[in-house]
Write a structure and sequence with these properties.
Order of helices and strands of chain B: EEEHEHEHEHEEEEEEEHEHEHEEH
Distance between the termini of chain B: 52 Å
CATH architecture of the largest domain in chain B: 3-Layer(aba) Sandwich
CATH superfamily of the largest domain in chain B: HUPs
Radius of gyration of chain B: 21 Å
Distance between the termini of chain A: 54 Å
Bound molecules: flavin-adenine dinucleotide, adenosine monophosphate
Radius of gyration of chain A: 21 Å
Number of strands of chain B: 17
Oligomer: heterodimer
Shape of chain A: globular
Structural class of chain B: alpha/beta
Number of domains of chain B: 2
Strand content of chain A: 25-35%
Largest interface: A-B, 84 and 105 residues
Helix content of chain B: 25-40%
Helix content of chain A: 25-40%
């Protein structure tokens, strides 16, 4: 079995988000980049499914050369090889088109994404790849069993879950529960340096959207403290002052 | 030109988030000086469909094909794209629910449309057509400009509100062709806790962290949530330790929520937690450590032991309701 895992390069979760250029650009100064946490989950599940020589895992990233340390991290976690599509990820449609193009010329049984990238939070790429390849896409999954031909998947729904069965090729976007994120060991880190990382050029894609500006949330007013002894006063305040109950 | 809203039904009923999406789509239709149609897939009673008129839909296309009884995003996307063509709709609105997230990107690709996922405000004419959306897991907002002719917008629940705007409504059966190739994913089972408020839609959320010491102490969290008609949530370590299910984990790597009221009990307020909850309208923090970072973003705070404070609040709430 051949699995393609899409990984995005995102700011570390502890990053304070600020912008430059009159709020038109994300301020990358001093920012550490990581493999998107959900993509680590997708990758970890892919590796589990391929354990014992059952298959290979390729990771793909659409990004410029600066993303290579993140790609190496994915190789250290256990991917067999990697592809970087050499372009800045303009928007989800651009990214999905690049990945779909690559998947068309390189046969994969299964394509896994993360549930969303923690920078742009689109939850878009996986389903777009599905549409571009005319194959099923299951978004926000929390369990994936796959025997190389048929998959049984649990997908999150409001207040519950749905069990879906898919035969043939498909795309899924993985959330927590799908796997425990694997941590690279020393051997993984050493071998990652020499694993193949192929760079391919991007195809042209028509622009459909762009981010024109960013905003940071308005600062909140200061906290009103209620003494623990009179904690019951909270209810009155929520009712008559905040008017939320 | 018109606006089309997809109205997701759950067991034949529309949730609040659907009426919110209709209200939002109606406001866009008004901005554009055009009308609003809705598309409903699955078995929904006429009385329920008629409710859409209350929020401004003047027409609803009703698709009741047997093959579409369960949600299969591939097939639903085809049907919605066909409906958009039929109605000459160039703006398609839907709710950014779990299903919506799997649907909107496919519709966008079919219609060569730009997509805003997680919209929180009405579009503006800045730069042509721009919509504010959440980014960086709630740590910021991005203004997405759609440059394509067709546009798809997935609205975050609890961001626009429900607005009545009564219109007379016509119900019309719609029978698009359904392709077998769109139906290869098969829904085997649906498990839904019907007695609980679902977290992404909840107006009030009561959330517990590691400060609660163990799963056996969640009784008071649930009692408080029940009294408030709230959903329950938790911090990541709590779900990692299996004290609570993953579906309750909020934050940067969990669910991002923006309820009217978020009550955080025994949660320190780490940056990753705040990312997912800081757009809540009112935040209450109960923590025994006055230095807990959560107090910096709280509207109301109680410095104290949750095991003493929460029972007092429960008692006060019971008295308030009585
Ligand atoms: C990549 C990554 C992603 C992450 N994503 C998320 C995420 O999405 N969501 C998330 O929540 N976390 C996330 N985290 C974890 C985050 O960094 C914190 O570790 C976590 O939020 C802390 O959870 P907590 O507040 O429940 O526990 P703690 O930080 O241990 O805080 C417990 C709090 O309870 C208080 N307390 C103790 N006893 C009592 C009592 N009797 N009464 C009242 N208060 C009491 C303490 O004062 C303390 O403030 C992530 C971390 C990483 C590295
Ligand atoms: N630049 C990228 N390169 C490769 N995969 C990506 C990229 N951006 C997003 N993805 C994948 O798509 C998923 C969803 O991203 P998004 O639609 O941006 O929320 C991520 O979790 C990744 O698996």
């Amino acid at each position: 079995m051949k699995i393609l895992v899409c990984i995005s390069n995102v700011p570390d979760t502890t990053t304070k988000i600020t912008f430059t250029g009159d709020n038109t650009e994300f301020n990358t100064a001093g920012v550490q980049y990581i493999v998107n946490p959900y993509d680590e989950i997708a990758l970890s599940r892919a590796i589990e499914l391929c354990e014992g020589g059952k298959g290979t895992v390729t990771v793909i990233n659409v990004g410029e050369v600066a993303t290579e340390p993140t790609i190496r991290k994915a190789l250290a976690i256990g991917a067999d090889d990697a592809v970087r599509v050499n372009a800045a990820p303009r928007d989800a449609y651009f990214v999905a088109t690049q990945i779909a193009e690559y998947a068309k010329s390189n046969e994969f049984d299964l394509i896994l994404c993360g549930r969303e990238s923690i920078d742009y939070n689109g939850s878009q790429v996986a389903a777009m790849i599905g549409e571009l390849l005319a194959i099923p896409s299951i978004s926000i999954i929390k369990k994936l069993d796959y025997d190389g031909a048929t998959a049984t998947i649990e997908r999150e729904i409001e207040g519950g879950k749905e069990v879906v069965s898919v035969s043939g090729k498909f795309v899924a976007s993985c959330a927590e529960g799908t796997a425990e994120a694997k941590i690279p060991n020393m051997r993984g880190i050493m071998s990652a340096r020499t694993k193949p990382l192929q760079v391919v050029e991007a195809v042209a894609v028509e622009e459909v959207s762009k981010i024109s500006k960013f905003e940071t949330p308005a600062p909140r007013g200061s906290v009103k403290l209620i003494p623990a002894e009179s904690a019951e006063d909270l209810i009155g305040l929520l009712h008559s002052e905040a008017k939320v109950i | 030109m018109s606006v089309l809203v997809y109205v997701e039904q759950v067991e034949g009923k529309f949730k609040k988030s659907v009426f919110e999406a209709v209200s939002y789509a109606k406001a866009i239709a008004d901005q554009q000086g055009t009308s609003l149609s809705a598309i409903s897939i699955g078995n929904v009673a006429e009385s329920e469909l008629n409710q859409l008129g209350k929020y401004g839909a003047s027409k609803v296309l009703k698709v009741e094909a047997d093959q579409l009884k369960n949600f299969v995003n591939q097939a639903y996307a085809s049907v919605i794209a066909e409906a958009a063509k039929k109605e000459a709709a160039n703006i398609i609105v839907l709710s950014n629910s779990f299903s919506g997230k799997g649907l909107a990107p496919r519709i966008a690709v079919k219609l060569k449309a730009g997509l805003v996922d997680g919209a929180v405000e009405l579009p503006t004419a800045d730069g042509g057509f721009s919509v504010k959306k959440t980014a960086f897991s709630g740590k910021a907002f991005a203004i997405a400009t759609l440059t394509s002719e067709n546009k798809v917008i997935a609205l975050n629940p609890n961001s626009f509100g429900i607005k009545e705007n009564v219109s007379s409504i016509a119900i019309e059966a719609f029978n698009p062709e359904i392709k077998a190739n769109d139906l290869t994913a098969i829904v085997k089972e649906i498990v839904r806790a019907t007695n609980k408020v679902s977290l992404p839609d909840a107006e009030i959320v009561v959330s517990g962290g590691r400060g609660l010491k163990g799963p056996e102490n969640w009784g008071m969290i649930e009692e408080l949530a029940d009294l408030l008609g709230a959903a329950t949530a938790c911090s990541k370590p709590v779900s990692d330790a299996d004290w609570r299910p993953h579906s309750e984990h909020v934050g940067q790597t969990g669910i991002a929520i923006s309820p009217n009221l978020y009550i955080a009990i025994g949660i320190s307020g780490a940056i990753q937690h705040l990312a997912g909850v800081s757009s809540s309208k009112v935040i209450v923090v109960i923590n025994k450590d006055p230095e807990a970072p959560f107090f910096k973003v709280a509207d109301y705070g109680i410095v104290g032991d949750a095991f003493e404070v929460v029972p007092k609040i429960i008692a006060a709430l019971k008295a308030h309701k009585a």
